[in-house]
Each structure stands twice: as C-alpha cells, then as structure tokens.
Amino acid sequence: MQLGLVGLGKMGANMRTRVQEAGHQVVGYDPRPEVSDVPSLADMVRGLEAPRVVWVMVPSGDPTRGTVKQLAELLEPGDLVIDGGNSKYTDDLPNAQLLGDKGIGFIDCGVSGGVWGLRNGYGLMAGGSDDDVARAMPIFDALRPPGERADGFVHAGPVGAGHYAKMVHNGVEYGLMHAYGEGYELLCAEPLITDVEGTLRAWTTGTVVRSWLLELLVRALQEDPGFSEISDYTTDSGEGRWTVEEAIRHSVPANVISAALFARFASRQDQGSPALKAVSALRNQFGGHAVTDTTGRSVGETGTPAAD
Amino acid sequence: MQLGLVGLGKMGANMRTRVQEAGHQVVGYDPRPEVSDVPSLADMVRGLEAPRVVWVMVPSGDPTRGTVKQLAELLEPGDLVIDGGNSKYTDDLPNAQLLGDKGIGFIDCGVSGGVWGLRNGYGLMAGGSDDDVARAMPIFDALRPPGERADGFVHAGPVGAGHYAKMVHNGVEYGLMHAYGEGYELLCAEPLITDVEGTLRAWTTGTVVRSWLLELLVRALQEDPGFSEISDYTTDSGEGRWTVEEAIRHSVPANVISAALFARFASRQDQGSPALKAVSALRNQFGGHAVTDTTGRSVGETGTPAAD
Amino acid sequence: MQLGLVGLGKMGANMRTRVQEAGHQVVGYDPRPEVSDVPSLADMVRGLEAPRVVWVMVPSGDPTRGTVKQLAELLEPGDLVIDGGNSKYTDDLPNAQLLGDKGIGFIDCGVSGGVWGLRNGYGLMAGGSDDDVARAMPIFDALRPPGERADGFVHAGPVGAGHYAKMVHNGVEYGLMHAYGEGYELLCAEPLITDVEGTLRAWTTGTVVRSWLLELLVRALQEDPGFSEISDYTTDSGEGRWTVEEAIRHSVPANVISAALFARFASRQDQGSPALKAVSALRNQFGGHAVTDTTGRSVGETGTPAAD
Amino acid sequence: MQLGLVGLGKMGANMRTRVQEAGHQVVGYDPRPEVSDVPSLADMVRGLEAPRVVWVMVPSGDPTRGTVKQLAELLEPGDLVIDGGNSKYTDDLPNAQLLGDKGIGFIDCGVSGGVWGLRNGYGLMAGGSDDDVARAMPIFDALRPPGERADGFVHAGPVGAGHYAKMVHNGVEYGLMHAYGEGYELLCAEPLITDVEGTLRAWTTGTVVRSWLLELLVRALQEDPGFSEISDYTTDSGEGRWTVEEAIRHSVPANVISAALFARFASRQDQGSPALKAVSALRNQFGGHAVTDTTGRSVGETGTPAAD
User: Fold this and answer.
1) What is the mean pLDDT of residues D207-220?
2) A108 and A178 belong to one structural domain
3) Do B6 and B154 fall into the same domain?
4) What was the pLDDT predicted at A149?
5) B chain contacts of residue A150, beta-carbon cutoff 8 Å
6) What digits encode the pLDDT tens for the residues D85-123?
7) Cβ of D302: how many Cβ atoms within 10 Å?
8) Which of D107, D137, D159 is the last residue before a domain boundary?
9) H-type helices in C190-254, by residue range?
10) Active-site residue (options: B73, B148, B173, B182)
C-alpha cells in the first residue's frame, strides 16, 4: 500500500526505510528539501491515491498540532492520519475531532525502539477505532518486529490509548534506567568489585535482571569506560513528568518513577540545590561545629555532640 | 569432573541436573534421604576423589555457616568449597578463613535465574582467587547459559565480590519489578486502556523496556488475569535490605531501590500503618471536617477550607 | 469596619467571631438559615455600606467559583472580594478578571490554623494589589495572631500568590506530618523505647524538632493511646497533589513531599496494591520457594537460595 | 550537687554554665589546658566527692568509648556515668557492662537543642535504671527547659533508649528540614511569589507548619538573603544513616527520612552522579537526538519522537 510520511528526521527516515523494505510505497515530506521526496505537504497528498494513510512523525506539541491542522485542510473524507510522535495523550481527542469533522480518521500510535527500530522493528501502541486500526495494519506490520504480532503491537484502546500507553512505557523506562543506575553506582563504590563492566555484562544473560537496556548499558560502558566522557546532566522528554502527573490524578503511588524523575531534576541544578542550601543554613543555625575531643585532636562534624 | 553438591532443594536439584547433563559426575547430599545420593555429608566427601570441589546450595546464614564448618572438618588441603547460596557478603571472608586455615579454597558465587536456570542456564557472579576460579570453571561453564562466557559469568573480584554482586543484582531487581508494577497499576487505573495485558505483551518486543521480567509479568497475567488470586503481601529475601544498607555505607543515593523495599514493608502492615495513623490523628487535631457550602449541600474533605 | 462573610461552616463561623471580637461588624451569609445572619446573598450585600469587603469562605472549586460569579452580579464597582478558601491558585486570575470587569477588586488569601485559629489567630498569605491589601488590612489584622504583623501575615505577591503560598504550606505540612509519623512508627517498633508518648512529649520543648504539630501529636496520643481508634486511611485535600504538580512544572525535586502524598494514596488501596501484586506475581514466576536446609528443617523464603 | 563534666567543647562549655547557674558545682575536664578546670581526668575524679556523677560530652565512637574505659579505671563502685554525646545506641550496653562490672552505673542521654540550649534549656532523652535516673535528676532538671518536666525530659527506657530516642529525633529532623527545604525551593521557583522570606516568616505564627526550625530558617534567610553564601554541600552526622538502618531492621517504611538522607549524599557528589551518568549514557544509546520539525526549525530533545 501507499503511505504518506511527514517528518524525515532520524526516526522518520528510518521508518520510511523499514516500510519500504516491506514492499510499501512511501511518499515522504520534510521541510528540508534535501531529504524530502516532494516539495510540499500538498504535493505529498497529491502523490497518494485516496483513501490515503498519512503518518505524522514530528515533534509533539505545536509542530504536531500544526501538521494535523494542515492535513485537515488538505486531506479528504475517508483518509486516515496516524500520529506516531510523542504527543501528550490529551492532544489526541482534539486532533481526532478536528479531523473527524472532515470525515478523516485518526490513530495515535506510540512508537518505541529508538534508532535500533530500523533493524529490530519498533514496539507500537495504537489508539483508535477498530476499522481505522485494521486499515493501517499493513503499515504497523511493516514497522513492528517480526514474529508474533502481539509481541510488539497492541491496539490498546480508543483514541488516546496509544499515547497513554507510550507515556506509561516511558515512565517505566525512567524507573528501570535509574534502578540500573543505582546498581551501577553501588558496584563502582565497592572496592571488592574489581570488574564492574564484567559484572553488568554477566547480568545480561541467565539472570533475573537481564534486559535490552542492560545490554545497552554494557555497550555504553565498553565504548566509554567509567563514563569519563558523559555528563550527569540529564534532560527529560516530558513523558516522565506526565506519567507522575497521571499517577497523581489516579491516586497511584509512583515512588519509583517519581524518584527517577526528581533525580533528573536535581542533575540540572547548576547553582546547587536551594532545598539543600536551606538545610545547610538550618544546620549552621543550631549547630556548634568545632569541638575538641578528650584526646585533644580536632574533630569533624561526624560525632560532634553539638550537631543534632 | 566430579562435583559434590550439598543441598538438593529446588535450586540444588536443578543445578545437579544441569551439571550432569554437561557430562560431569555429581554426588549430591541432602538431609532428606529420599532425595540424597548418599547417607551423610561424610559419605559425600568420601565419594569424591581429591582434590575435591564441593558446591554448597543451602539457605544463607546459619545453615550455610554450619555446612562450611562441617566441610572444614571433612575436607582435605587442596579441596575447594563454593558457596552458591544467597549469603551476605560479610559471611564470605570468615568462611574463607575458616577453610583457608585447613588449606581449603573458597569461592562465593551468586546465582541468578530461579527455576528457569535449569533450561536457560544461570547467571553467575564469582568471588575468589584466580586459581580457585580456574579450577571450578568447568562447573561454572556447565551452569551458565550457552554462548559467550562473559554473558552470564563474571569473576567479579576477590572473596566476597560474588555475593556482593548478587546482592546488588537483587537490589536492582527490586527496582525493576517495582517500576513495572507502577506502570501496570497506572495502566489499570486509566479507562482509556482497554487491554492492559496486551499492552504489556506488546512491550516485550521492540520497545526500550523489553526484558525477561516483563515477559514473566505477561505470563503471570495470562495465568491469572487481573491478579485476582494474588495477594499484595510481599516478603523480602533480605538482599534488598542489605543493598540499601550498603548504599548508606557508601553514601550512594538509592531512592529507587529503597522505595521498592519500603513498599514491600508497607504491604505487610496488617494492622495499618502507624505513620499514617499519626497523620490521620494530626489532621483530626487541627481539622474541622464538616462544612457546608453556599448551596447547602454537605461537603467532603476535598475543598474543605478548614482542612489545611 | 464592616465585613460580609459568605460561608459559616466551622472555619467561617470561627472567623466571624474573631473579626467581631476585634470590633468589626460582620454580616454573615450561609445557605443554612439556622446559622445565617441574612436570608440571602443579596441581603448580605444590601446590609453593607459601599465600598464593601466580602470574604468568601466556602469549599474550593465550583462552590467558590459560583459564589464569585454571584458576587460579580450583586456587588458594585469599588467593592472588594477576598477568597479565603483553599482554591487552586489557577482559579484566582479568572476570578479576579471576572470581578475586575465590573470594577470589583480581588484578593486571594490562604488561611492556616484550623480550629485553633479562633483563639490563636490564623496565619494569612495574601495575593493582590497593594491598594486592595491595604483596604482589607483591618480584617487581616483581626484574623492574624497578635504580635508582629509579619509573623502570621504576608502579602506574598500579586493575585494568585496567596493561594500559591498556602498550597506550598500544605505541601510542606504533608512532609512534616509524615516525618513525625515515621519517627513515631520507629519508636513504636523498638522494644527499648518503653515510653513512646513521653518521648514525643519530651521533644516538644528544647529540642530541634519542637513544633506545634508535635504538640498536637502528643495531644492526640494522650486522647487515644496507641491510636487504637484511628484508621490509617488518609484522605488528601488536593493541595498536596497540586504541590507535587507544581514541583514537576518547576523541575523542583520534591522527594519528601511526594513520598508523603503517595503514602496517603497507598493507605486507600482497599483491594491491595496492584503494583505489589505484580511484584508478588513476578516472584512466583521465577522463584522456587520451598527448600530444605542441611539440617532437615523447613526453610522460609528468607535465605532461600532460589529466591532472587 | 557536684558534677564531673568531661569535654568542654561548644556544647560541654554551655552545659557547664547552665548547670552552674542552677546552683550545682561543676568540675570540668578537657584535654585543652586553657579551658579545663583540672589538669587531668584523674584530677577531676579526685575533685568530686563519692558517690560521683560524671557527664561525658565528647564525640561519639572511639573518643566516648575511650573516655568510658578511663572512667571505669578511675571511678569507684556507686559512681555514675552519663553519656550525653551522640553515641550510637549499640555502644550503650557494652559501655554499661564495662562500668557495671566495677559497680558503676550508666545512663545514656540524648541531648538536643544545639547552641540555643544554653539559654532555652536542652531537650533530654534518658536511658537507664530508675535509680540511676533518679540520682541524676537534679542535673537533668538544670539542663532541661523550665516548665513542666515532661516537656523536655523523658526517661525513655532502659540503657540504650536515650540514644535510640535521640537517633530517631535526628532522623525526624532530617525529614522536617528537607520538607521546609522543598517548600522554600518551590516558593523561589514561582514568579508569583515576590516575597519568599516574608512568606516563610508569616508561616512562623498561626499556621499549621510553625516550628522552631522554621524560625531558624527565617533567621538564616534574613542573615543571608537567597542563601548566596551557603553551599548546598551537606554533611551528615551519622544519625540519619542509623535511623534508616533501624527502619530497615524493623521493616518500617521510611520514605521521607531516607529521601532527606539521600539528598545529602547527592549533594556531595563532586564528580557528578554515577547513576545519572549511566542514565545519560543509556539515552545516548537508544536516542536519536537531532530531528527537524515540519517548520524546518531545529528541535531540542523535548518532543523529539526518537527520544523514548
């Protein structure tokens, strides 16, 4: 079948390749002429036979909303738009309604797998109507990993469910990465462990904690032993924040995911933590720091009777 | 080669099978005559040609320490004992010294993989001298998964390092399981998600969060949809506690692992949480709970001006 | 001066008393005729000389928004409305604009102190223009505790700042209460401590942790030793949720406040924690639970080699 | 009565003053001749009439244990030693036994109040026998704040209970300080709040969160607005660590106290957080960072479809 694909960044370009390799025809549009198949979004639409399926793979928020608005003008009743980006799930219903008013279908589809999806296939989480999902199934089958369809693809629910599932996926990912991070840090801190990288590598097979993320961690350590080139400054994509907000909305205790999120916040405090400055200031207020013990030697704060 | 194996519980029996299938001869001892190959520990020792290798696979703490003491009496200089149980790493040096005084070698070896290790092989983390590890290597090779040795086996450092690595492994495992648990709970709480099990299953392939634990979670949900048969009462093996204690000793922030540990503690509070009773009592002290709004309807605590 | 007061629940009635005792005239309205000074909101407005000051003390959300809408119709240019309830700060600007369009001023004023405020005075946090705050100052002075004005009253910023400050106050309160709760629980758990209530009472004077909340905790324990009558089921007013949401919006690590919030969520899970059910189910999947040690006694899960 | 006082650091010197002001005679010993009343510990003992009471106020650990050992040699049956330092409670029983073998009594007494105790009195938590506590009561009464004895003093239980209570006190203190710290940080982050110091000061009276620590926080902010002179590097006295370790031992969920402790650990990671470096490295492994949106502008990682 044919697929219109908007956004040929790293993810979009890889997905185009994978869909083409499955035997489908892709008309890709990107504002950068050097990577685009057509000069304009309108040309992309004109290059597809109705009923069309158009996959939007652009940044979430305004770019995606803007693209959907343009498509609502350009497409025809019976066409179908799939938002494969990391949109917040609350964007999906408005987008679906905007398109639905023109008779155009909408699917939100969370996509996981990163740059590895080109070769391994992408994990897909779709939200939308049964009919729309059935129409897009050949594309989903091209993108998802080979093997059983239910491993790597889910029709998670109505419009919004796909991005919701992807959001939770990313929240879980925060927790998993930080759990490995804490384990890595503890192994590094313990002198008994003379081979940290080897220990993590051993964990990749046979153990209970084996996972793809762990394999990537070993790969990263092999490329840069001790992470000497890596900053601990960590950004966040927004999905971890949304996950904790949803946990709050649903009264779900999310101690692990929020701890992972807050650790990222802390990593960005270039001027130090105001909270800890307050703690330091408090200790200065009530503490008496210099004491001398009975042997006459000067004594640090540990064991200082005055430090509460 | 020959292996003496003390402890033929679920793990020990499976390991015996796997070692035998690799072509080695196992003499197994267990206090339960119906499963033991020999009537006594002394008979096990007599049944092995020197220099002997004896694998101890009994519960940690007193049972393991007791077995090591018995072996120190029964074995000869040049023999080797491997503790494959979940001993605390601080037990290893005393055990090694007790045996070393008799000229007997010692390796601590963390074993991961659970009941699945029989078929998949076990992830192994060994601590000890190079010579001792080299001698035991044929047994490690029999137990670990097929493929590259470094995937599934590590000589992590001197005596103690194997159990230390296993302890951290289990701490990480706490974090991973709880991250999935929080994601599962949030998916269950959101009405948009009409196929929770399918969503988790889709995550098992292609996605960033794919792992063996996730596959087990899907398997468990398929066996018992909604976990209707499962209590949230969760015990702990002690290794999570040790991991957090070690994090404290090494000044490693372990927010994720400790959150997972504390959640297990909370699940066991049959009489309710004393901390939350104190919070409730405090709110009663300063709160004025019943207020009426301007429409005359009775008002719950949300929005009560008096409830700080 | 005169004050119109809408809402004569527990808080509103106490505040009326306190304002009257300071020599002001209060016209109170409540939909319950038995406690109301006037039969209707319109009568309350008619009973006040312009320019009027009306304090709204009703539940947050729709009740407050509805009351503000009614007052926008009934009041005149130059009048002033103060929202003293626990409104979310994001409600304040719309309310201020609705009133401002009619020439009516608006102040949001967070009020803390609970039922004790009648005697002790209330801690007040106001948001609004300098002029509006100056006009209402006699009322604020009547409500706040005696002594220095800056202890117990702040003009925290423009419209919204008062409720924002109150929201953060309540978030901090969550953290404080839970810190005491954890300390209380640990004292109860330790057999060495034979006088838990006495220990907490001793802390109320001289120590670093002394506070009003601690005094209330001792009072509560004296009324109900062991909290035998108290459930650990703990609701939340919404302000803790908002605080954590704001922390997320501002990238502020809020580990302590969120931990206190999540503990309340957990206390309400009557069917058990789905996350912990998932953890239990996972452990069943990979664990081999029954093992026997070398002494033949049956062994629980602690120390079970098979339990990762 | 007479009191021997070992250790005339900031705390000890203040306590000498307070005990003297209550009419007692103090013979103080300190290894620094310029502050000591007597040239040696033996001279201090000789300067007291039997039965003696000796208060030890030196750093915990070896200095305290060493002082107790010396006193065991110098004192006589019927004398009494009080350890007022921040010893770990597990040191108390060995110290008590060492002294008890010579017929000398022992009390462990947690002392809180910092440098303010000189004027306000100290909060005291004592562990020991009824007889020993009764003998030392005049000294406790001199040190504790005026007013009701039960406010500021508790006989918490047998030997060990005093330091245990003090340890929990300090753990609670960690949680309280960090709760205020988080609130302070959030107030600073929100542009609506134009008077952070004023807001905190307003909280000191009338509100639910009022406390002595809050008063100190306001004082600190007034001395150093914005904490411009304060580092967020925060040490810890060891008591927070012990509290969390005890929580683990007693299966008490201590999410709040441990979060406060771990935040201090994080503040000391001069080379950055290894855990977050691992997280960063992982994101590099699977992420595709540079994408372009349909408007041609370059896009950061937020909203990048490729960033899981």
Assistant:
1) 97
2) no
3) yes
4) 95
5) 198, 201-202
6) 999 999 999 999 999 999 999 999 999 999 999 999 999
7) 15
8) D159
9) 196-203, 212-223, 239-249
10) B173
Determine, for residues D165 and C250 on separate chains, whether the beta-carbon distance falls below 8 Å. Answer: no
Residues D184 and C126: their CA atoms lie apart, in Å, by 17
- Partnered with residue C153 across adjacent β-strands are C124
The verdict on B151 and B282 lying in the same domain is: no
Structure tokens of B33?
């005559």
**Residue B173 catalytic?**
yes
CA distance to partner chain D, nearest, from residue C221 (Å): 14
Q: How far is A24 from chain D (nearest CA, A)?
A: 22
Q: ∠ at Cα B137 (B132, B138), nearest 5°? A: 135
- Cα–Cα distance measured from residue B79 to residue D60, given in angstroms and rounded to the nearest whole number: 45
Q: How many CB atoms lie within 10 A of CB B147?
A: 11
Number of independent structural domains in chain D: 3
Residues D47 and D145 in one domain: yes
Find residue A291's DSSP bridge partners.
Answer: A299
Residue pair A274/D188 in contact (Cβ under 8 Å)? The answer is yes
Query: Is there a contact between A196 and A218 (Cβ–Cβ < 8 Å)?
Result: no
Domain extent, residue A252, equals 167-267
B222: how many CB neighbours lie within 10 A of its CB?
A: 11
Question: DSSP state, B122?
Answer: -
Cβ neighbors of C294 (< 8 A, separation 6 or more) are B6, B7, B29, B30, B31, B41, B58, B63, B66, B67
- Provide, as residue numbers in chain B, all residues whose Cβ is less than 8 Å from the Cβ of C42: none
Listed residues B159, B194, B224: the one ending a domain: B159
> CB-based burial of residue B49 (10 Å sphere; 0-12 exposed, 13-18 middle, 19+ buried)?
exposed
Q: Judge if B206 and B243 occupy the same domain.
A: yes
**Contacts B304 to C, Cβ<8 Å:** 9, 59, 86, 237
Chain C touched by A245 (CB under 8 Å): yes
CATH number, domain with residue B152: 3.40.50.720
Exactly one of B76, B88, B166, B185 is catalytic; name it: B166
In D, which residues are within 8 Å of C192 by CB distance?
89, 127, 156-158, 160-161, 164
The model's confidence at residue B23, banded by pLDDT at 50, 70 and 90, is very high
Q: What sign for the dihedral angle of Cα C228, C232, C234, C240? A: positive
CB contact under 8 A, A255 and C258: yes
Nearest CB among C241, C252, C259 relative to A255 is that of C259
Distance (Å, rounded) from C-alpha B84 to C-alpha A180? Answer: 23
Across the 308 residues of chain C, what is the mean pLDDT of every consecutive 10-residue run? 97 97 98 97 98 97 98 98 98 98 98 94 98 98 96 98 98 98 98 98 97 97 95 90 98 98 94 95 75 35 40
B282 part of contact set with chain C, CB < 8 Å: yes
| Side-chain-facing half-sphere of A15: CA atoms under 13 Å | 35
Structure tokens belonging to residue D30: 């300190």
Q: Are residues D73 and D209 in the same domain?
A: no
Domain shared by C98 and C133, yes or no: yes
Same-domain check for residues C197 and C210: yes
Closest Cα of chain A to B133: distance in Å? Answer: 15
D241 touches chain B (CB under 8 A): yes
Q: Nearest-CA residue of chain A relative to C259?
A: A255
Mutate to test the interface with D, among C119, C205, C245 (most CBs of D within 10 A): C205
**Cβ proximity of A303 and A289 under 8 Å:** no
Q: Which residue of D has its CA nearest to C204?
A: D151
Q: Which residues of C are the active-site residues? A: 166, 173
Nearest to B267 by CA among B237, B242, B236, B244: B236
Among the partner-chain residues A151, A173, A246, the one whose CB lies closest to the CB of B205 is A151
Enzyme catalytic residues of D: 166, 173
Q: CATH code at B217?
A: 1.10.1040.10
pLDDT at res. B151: 96
> Which ipTM score applies to this complex?
0.93
Q: Which one-letter DSSP state was computed for residue C211?
A: B
